[in-house]
Amino acid sequence: MPTTGSKLRSGCCEVGHTEQNLPSMNAREELRGIIAKESVLFREEGFLLASGRRSQYYYDLKLTTLSNPHALTLAARLLLDKIGPHVDAIGGLTSGADPLVVAVSLLAMSEGRRLPGFFVREKPKAHGTERVIEGVVEEGMNVVILDDVITQGNSVLKAIKGAEEKGARVVHVFILVDREEGGMKYLREKGYNVEPIFTHTELVS
To answer: b/e map of 130-145 (b: 16 or more CB within 10 Å)?
Structure first.
């Protein structure tokens, strides 16, 4: 387990929303249908994944989070309603998390809540500021990590480590789609509180 103190602290991510503000099952079901129709690709011979493994299913979530503004709005609602009141910023690994971070931050602002965003790069910029993180992440901040899909968890862990290296505490991780290939277990065994919005099983069933 990491020793940085970046695990979930009691009360950091308690959902503090009234019942009327929670997304309806219809909204969740609508987003599930959009993702299943637009972002779940199937190929008999399989796809090569970033993890190096092959799968007959590929999740092109940007067809939902970039190409379908209505679906992105639904995703932002579902994610924001899971983020508790004691969170200082939200972020994730570029580029899968980018539209989610921006959409959730804007939705929060429209409701009178400040949730600035940040992006973690795979490697430092080769020019200019040469930063790994774009946006403000400071020591002692409570942050939530977002991502569109998780397979084995390595990409999400890069975002977590990027925030931790700045001294932030990662209090929760929310994933839009869990491929159910070990990533959730991998991060939970490292002590992180990780939760998916949808699983592979419910999207292809």
So the answer is: eebbbeebeeebbbbb
Residue 94 near residue 19, CB atoms below 8 Å: no
pLDDT digits (tens, 9 = 90+) for 4-60: 333 333 334 444 444 444 456 698 999 999 999 999 999 999 999 877 889 999 999
Q: Alpha-carbon distance 203 to 37, whole Å? A: 9
pLDDT value at position 73? 97
Nearest Cα to 187, choosing from 151, 145, 153?
A: 153
How does DSSP classify residue 23? P
Question: 169-178 and 194-199 as β-strands: parallel, antiparallel, unpaired?
Answer: parallel
Question: Encoding tokens for residue 96?
Answer: 């899968």
Give the pLDDT confidence score for residue 181 in this predicted structure.
95
